[in-house]
Specification:
Elements lengths: L5 E2 L10 H8 L12 H13 L4 E5 L2 H12 L5 E5 L3 H4 L4 H6 L2 E5 L9 H7 L10 E7 L9 H13 L3 E5 L3 H8 L3 H5 L4 E5 L10 E5 L1 H13 L8 H13 L4 H15 L6 E2 L8 E6 L1 H12 L3 E2 L4 E5 L2 E9 L6 H12 L4
Parallel strand pairs: 1-11, 3-4, 3-5, 5-6, 6-7
Antiparallel strand pairs: 2-8, 7-8, 9-10, 10-13, 12-13
Helix pairs in contact: 1-11, 2-11, 3-10, 12-14
Length: 349
């Protein structure tokens, strides 16, 4: 029998529930590459309506969804402006530049992922012949689990519009922001030309993201999907899981948020960790540890049927620390959290 591991690495590791598996089993399917899959169409229509957009496109991954959005908005040699730590720049293999010839201009952000308004203004280029013309502003919400204030997003996208830039939102965990703030999906959708939402992170579907936008944009994006090998056949089986996720798992995200608070409170009792409460908004907990014990702590936790990512180095007040990231999701409950904290508390330097 396979051992059970409490897995805190990411909310992408959750398994489909029995009810989700049943929805997949019963899915009405067709060949989506021909446009014949009714369940895919239902998902796309539902997501477009949810975000207040005319059209949507079901895609295998959030990385491909963001890449297709960028390649649809930008031509070769045009510039994408984004944040230095944002997923489209830091975690997607440089696809926009490697595959699309798009120049990426990563702006510095503060610790919570916010871009400075003035820095955005002076970074926008008109294309004098000596520099690439700025074409797209891509933002992110949530950023590493932190909710970007809706008023800040409005001001940033307003600056983009004033300079004739298109706007894209990497909303991989946008549902967490909705659950945290009670702002609607449509409120976020109204600010951006395109939005990508992942259904396989906190919402628990096994595969898939949806890209929403205008009809001409989605028509062009569909061609990009074909060129990148993202067209699927009887993908209604996957779309059924995504439909189940969006219909049943948004409201429960508040449980993950509460579990994050609970874990943070428990970690604060351990003197080896400095818990970053100012970075905890939704389902992700950050806790810093001294470099000389980081490796041993990770090894100790991992030996107790627990899965956590290796901590990453960060600089705080000119000193190097190592930061653990613990992610809550629908397969993590208080018993798992207590198992994690018990393991941490049993560590001996």
């Amino acid at each position: 029998m396979q051992k059970y591991f409490s897995d805190f690495r990411s909310d992408t590791v959750s398994k489909p529930s029995l009810a989700m598996r049943e929805a997949m089993r019963m899915a009405d399917v067709g060949d989506d590459d021909y446009g014949d899959d009714p369940t895919v169409k239902e998902l796309e229509e539902k997501m477009a309506a949810l975000l207040g957009k005319p059209s949507a496109l079901f895609l295998p991954s959030g990385t491909q969804s963001n890449l297709i959005a960028i390649l649809t908005h930008c031509q070769r040699g045009e510039e994408l402006i984004t944040g230095k730590g944002y997923h489209v720049y830091a975690w997607e293999g440089g696809g926009a530049s490697a595959l699309g010839g798009v120049v990426v201009n990563p702006l510095m952000t503060d610790e919570r992922g916010s871009i400075n308004l003035d820095e955005l203004k002076i970074s926008i280029k008109t294309g004098s012949g000596h520099e690439p013309p700025s074409k797209l502003l891509s933002l992110e919400n949530t950023y590493c689990g932190m909710v970007q204030p809706i008023e800040a997003l409005k001001m940033l996208t307003q600056i983009a519009r004033e300079h004739n830039l298109s706007t894209h939102l990497d909303g991989a965990r946008l549902a967490n922001a909705v659950a945290k703030t009670n702002n609607s999906f449509a409120e976020y959708g109204s600010m951006f030309d395109s939005i990508s939402i992942c259904l396989s992170k906190g919402l628990g579907a096994p595969v898939g993201s949806v890209l929403v936008g205008g009809p001409n944009f989605i028509d062009r994006a569909r061609r990009q999907r074909k060129q990148l090998g993202g067209g699927m056949r009887q993908s209604g089986i996957l779309a059924a899981a995504a439909l189940y996720a969006i219909e049943n798992n948004v409201s429960r995200l508040s449980e993950d948020h509460q579990n994050a608070i609970y874990l943070a409170q428990e970690l604060e009792k351990n003197s080896l960790f400095q818990v970053r409460n100012n970075l905890i908004d939704t389902n992700i907990v950050y806790a810093d540890i001294q470099p000389d014990i980081a490796d041993a702590m990770h090894l100790h936790i991992s030996s107790n049927q627990l899965k956590v990512n290796f901590p990453e180095p960060v600089i705080i007040n000119d000193k190097i620390w190592f930061r653990f990231r613990f992610v809550m999701h629908l397969d993590i409950n208080k018993e798992d959290i207590e198992k994690l904290t018990a393991s941490i508390n049993s560590f001996e330097c």
